[in-house]
Structures are given as C-alpha cells and as structure tokens.
Recover the amino acids of this structure.
C-alpha cells in the first residue's frame, strides 16, 4: 500500500514527484525517496519519516533538481522495518527501482542472487527485483526484455517503476495485482499508484492491467501483455481531488469495505501452501519446541480488534487444542493476571499504538511469550512483542475499522493453522480444506459486497429507529457485536450485540414492533436451527428481523424475517467474515442517511493512544 509517482518529460521531475507524493500523504507512510536521472547518472535521495524529512535532505545544492526523468515512493513497510536503508528507490548497478506490493518468493531469489555475487543493502523484497533487472540488463537485453525476464521470475503482487542509467529516455513499468495509472500530458508522462497523485497535472489517464509491461517515453507508451503488444485506452477522469483520494467513493469507510477482497488476498499471500496443506509465517521466532509447550493462549485487545479476538478464539480452540481466553486490554492491565512462561499472549491491534493494549503487553512481556497481530510495521506494539503477524490491510483511514477487522480474523486463522500444524493438533486434511477455502475468500467477499443496493434500501426503512438489537451464536456472536459497534460509532444510534441464546434471559423484554433485530446466522447444522428458534421468539413479539446469512433460500427463515440478506457460503470457519460485510454496509448507509460525519465520527479517534 505504498505510494508511487514517476515523471518523464521536460520539466524538473523532482518537484512534480514530490508534489504527487504529497497528494498521497493521506494514506500514511513511514519513509520516502526519489531517484532522478541527471548528468549521466541516477541520484537517489531517501529519508525515514514524513515527506518533509526528504525535502529537508533536498535543501540546498544537491544533485537531481534539474533532471526530467525520475521516480519517487512513499513506503508503508511490509518486509523490513521502516528505515532509510529499506526506503525505496532500491538500486543495483545501472538500475533504480520502486515497488508497491509483495514479492512472495523473495527468500529463494535472494539466495540465488547472493550466490551470483549480488550484495544487498536492505531487508526488502523490492531489492530482489532491482538486482534481477540489473542482471538481465547486464546480459545485453533491452530494458523491455529485461523487465519481462525479471517479472517472469517473480511471484506475488507488484507495481514496479524502474530507470536504467544506460537508457535514460524511458521509465519501465510492470503491473500485477497492484494498481498503476499513467497520466498522459503534452510531451510528458506521469505515473502513479493512485489517481490523486497526478490529478493536478492531467486528467487523461491510462489504467494498466494485470500482467502489463510498459515502456514510457516523454511522448509515448508501449505496452505488452503475455508477450503481445496491447493498446490501453486513454480515459478522462472527472473526479475532484478529494473524491479521487477516496477512490471515487463518498467516504473512506465505503472504499475500505470494498477493498476487503483485495487486502484479504494480501493477508494470506505467500502464507498458504495448497500442495503441502501447510502455512508459512515469515520470520517467526517461536520455536517448534516453544509452540509445543504453550499451555494457554490469552488474547488482549480493544474495540473492533477485541471482536476479532473473539472469532480467533474459535479458531484456536478447534485447530490448536490450546485453552484460550479473550480479555479487554483496558481491564487486563489493571488486574493481577495469573500466567506462566508457557502462556502465549496475543495482542491484536490495527494501529499497534493503542495505549491499553500496549500497557497489557508491557505487563507480561518479560515473563511470557508474546505475539501481535498488527497492521502497522514499526509500531510500538509490533516492536515490543516476540513475534508479529502483520495483517497487510494497508492504511485504514476511516475511524471505523472494517478491513482491519476482517484481515485480523484471517491472520488469526492462519496463525492458528500454523500453531496447530506444529502441535499436530489439526489434520493435514482439515488444513488443506481451510487453505482451499481461504483461496476462494476474496471472490466470495466481492460477491458479498454486491448486497449493497439491498442494504441501502433496508437502511432507508430502518434509519430512524432509536435502538437496534444484534444477535448471533457461536463465531457469529462477535459478528453481532461488531455490527452493533459499527452502527453505534458512526450513526450514534444505540445498538446492543447479544448472544442469541441469551436473549431470553433479559433483552427479550425490549422487543416490540419498534425494535429492529439484526441477526448473523451462519450455515451450521446446529447453530442455524438454534438461532432460528430464537428468531421465532422475536417474531412472536412483533420484532422486525433483518437476517444476514450464508444459507440460501430458507423458507422458514423468510417466514419470520422482514428482510433476509444472503451472502455466499464457503465454510463455517469463514462465515464470520462474509456475514460481517452486510453489517458494515448497513451501519454505513444508516449513518449516511442520518447525515453523520462517517469517516470522522464525533468523540472518536483512529488511534487511541491515551488511557
Ligand atoms: C472501531 C475501532 C476501535 C478500534 C480500537 C482498537 O471501529 O476502530 O474500536 O478497534 O480502538 O484499535 P487498534 O486495533 O488500533 O488497537
């Protein structure tokens, strides 16, 4: 989720690149850098921190200010901590290169390149591509052929921009599963990962497609896909700059809901091995022996992340056989917790900066095993735990968490498989089954988002209600809690999440013809029937039921519900993920109809760094 900008033309590339990167600042990043061709060589400048730090380095008489060909990058760390060395561009011989995405097979390629005498100066997967491209050019290949050769060696997602000091009249571009857009000017070309970066310069754009390899000069573009030359149309962007930052969506929250299929694929990319029915987690410090000794898992987190932990508990209990608890970090930190060095504490945090979660982990980290499921590399929590599983959700800008939640759940599932495999607690067959379902998850999530129009209509019917009750059982009880939290935080409507089976012990007194009851109902032979009978109790008291389910066309359900929202079914394990999507959309559309500030709801902050 890094920012990419490139320029080739007749103006100073540096200023154009820096202002393009500035326009991507809303996404957040940890370091930035540029490479500019000037006076027969490429000049690279990089800095840790905000763009202002890079600008400071470029103050005064530094080379690169006049060159009219260049590439620039803001980094959101995935492989390797945030540091100047890990900042892009990465250079090898004649080449400077920037990258957005993840190279999955970088470990084996790094070994191969080291064997070839390549010296690495960063911990990134990107540097591999710079060396590969430089090596291919060194064999006498033209840049276009050399880039094709390079991409042929890579597995994963990428958008690359590269410049070659021996061919300074062009910028080489490659795209696979990561967006890249070319801005077409008069005798100049702009390249960016996101449209906002180039909107100030041109509205004419070419959107590259997966598998495209392109060569850009100041006045032309050549594109090949699968070895054949292709023409990509020039389109005109009509978005204003603010809409453009939101990818054309009205709010970041809606953009992030829609982004979930893409980022969920990033979460498990490179981690699943279908053939071996096993999962791979990079750089884990926990040894197999330590894993076998764990006698208890304690999850600590806050808010939405705490809800993700509740789903994770189901995965851990069924796949690792280890007793598992979930605690609010804000409660845990003020108790005298009982644990041993065999306890594994797993804290889950999008930001990695939540004060309560950080304090909880500080309390135990000296004497227990600690691990974080976290979205931000280099964050305080990520730096304080023994191991980290990054969620790879990319920057989440809307205060209300959406994609962070679903990527946390998938990360927890992958982690449970990893631990379960090491403890022999889950059969290869079961692992294989879950892995193949995960592979289908992004497409199913995309399908689930298609209920949007139906949800919009439902929101119109219910947005004036003063209270909502959310119900669910099993691993869908956390989905009910999360649905209620989303509604509360962005629409300011009172909402309560409850285990469906507990309703008769109190909340049933609230049910009347004014009470919308939203239920998450998973395709489970046992839980579906049980929840359905709870819904009959609601129906008998005139409650208005909105069911979200992955069961298709159930007549009994339709009979008691005012609305039924159906999403695809993959498996019971993955139901919570798919049922969450309509919950997010419902909260979103109710809030929009009620005119609240969806992305910045009152009284809330994205990162709660105070007690
Ligand atoms: C709700 C929300 C919050 C966070 C909570 C923890 O939409 O975003 O409830 O989940 O503040 O934040 P992190 O995950 O950053 O520790």
């Amino acid at each position: 989720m890094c920012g990419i900008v490139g320029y080739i033309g007749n103006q100073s590339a540096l200023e154009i690149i820096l202002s393009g990167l500035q326009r991507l600042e809303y996404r957040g990043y940890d370091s930035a850098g540029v490479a500019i061709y000037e006076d027969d060589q490429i000049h690279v400048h990089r800095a840790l921190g905000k763009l202002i730090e890079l600008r400071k380095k470029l103050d005064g008489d530094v080379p690169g200010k006049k060159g009219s060909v260049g590439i620039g990058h803001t980094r959101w760390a995935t492989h390797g901590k945030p540091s100047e060395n890990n900042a892009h561009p990465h250079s090898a011989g004649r080449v400077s290169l920037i990258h957005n995405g993840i190279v999955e097979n970088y470990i084996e390629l790094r070994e191969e390149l080291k064997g070839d005498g390549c010296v690495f100066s960063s911990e990134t997967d990107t540097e591999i591509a710079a060396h590969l491209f430089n090596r291919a050019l060194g064999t006498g290949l033209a840049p276009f052929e050399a880039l094709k050769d390079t991409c042929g060696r890579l597995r994963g997602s990428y958008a690359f921009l590269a410049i070659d000091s021996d061919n300074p009249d062009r910028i080489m571009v490659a795209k696979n599963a990561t967006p890249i857009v070319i801005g077409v000017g008069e005798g100049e070309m702009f390249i960016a990962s996101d449209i906002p970066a180039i909107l100030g310069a041109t509205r004419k754009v070419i959107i590259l497609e997966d598998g495209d390899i392109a060569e850009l000069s100041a006045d032309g573009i050549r594109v090949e896909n699968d070895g054949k030359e292709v023409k990509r149309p020039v389109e005109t962007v009509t978005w204003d700059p603010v809409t453009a930052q939101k990818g054309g969506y009205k709010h970041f929250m809606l953009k992030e809901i829609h982004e979930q299929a893409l980022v969920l694929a990033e979460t498990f990319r490179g981690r699943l091995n279908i053939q071996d029915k096993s999962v791979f987690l990079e750089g884990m410090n926990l040894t197999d022996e330590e894993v076998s000794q764990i006698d208890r898992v304690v999850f600590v987190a806050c808010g939405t992340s705490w809800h993700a932990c509740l789903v994770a508990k189901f995965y851990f209990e069924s796949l690792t056989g280890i007793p598992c608890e979930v605690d609010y970090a804000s409660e845990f930190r003020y108790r005298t917790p009982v644990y041993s060095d065999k306890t594994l504490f797993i804290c889950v945090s999008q930001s990695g900066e939540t004060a309560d979660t950080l304090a909880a982990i500080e309390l135990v980290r000296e004497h227990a095993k600690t691990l974080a499921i976290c979205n931000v590399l280099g964050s305080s929590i990520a730096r304080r735990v023994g191991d980290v599983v990054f969620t790879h959700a990319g920057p989440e800008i809307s205060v209300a968490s959406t994609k962070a939640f679903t990527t946390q759940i998938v990360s927890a599932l992958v982690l449970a498989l990893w631990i379960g495999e090491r403890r022999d607690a889950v059969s290869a067959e079961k692992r294989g089954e879950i892995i193949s379902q995960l592979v289908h998850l992004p497409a199913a999530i995309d399908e689930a988002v298609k209920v949007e129009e139906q949800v919009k209509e439902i929101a119109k019917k219910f947005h004036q209600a003063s209270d909502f009750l959310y119900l669910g059982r099993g691993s869908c009880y956390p989905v009910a809690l999360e649905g209620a939290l989303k509604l509360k935080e962005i629409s300011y409507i009172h909402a309560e999440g409850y285990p469906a089976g507990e309703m008769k012990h109190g909340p049933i007194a609230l049910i009347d013809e004014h009470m919308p009851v939203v239920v998450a109902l998973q395709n489970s032979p046992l839980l579906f029937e049980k929840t359905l009978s709870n819904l009959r109790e609601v129906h008998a008291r005139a409650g208005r039921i909105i069911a979200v389910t992955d069961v298709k066309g159930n007549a009994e359900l339709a009979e008691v519900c005012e609305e039924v929202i159906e999403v695809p079914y993959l498996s019971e394990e993955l139901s919570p993920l798919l049922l969450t999507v309509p919950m997010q959309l419902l909260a979103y559309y109710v809030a929009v109809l009620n005119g609240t500030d969806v992305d910045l709801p009152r009284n809330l902050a994205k990162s709660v760094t105070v007690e």
Q: What stands out?
A: Residues 302-305, 349-351, 354, 357, 400-401, 485, 489, 607-608 surround fructose -6-phosphate (CB under 6 Å). The longest strand covers residues 95-103. The chain has 20 helices and 27 strands. The two ends are 30 Å apart (CA to CA).
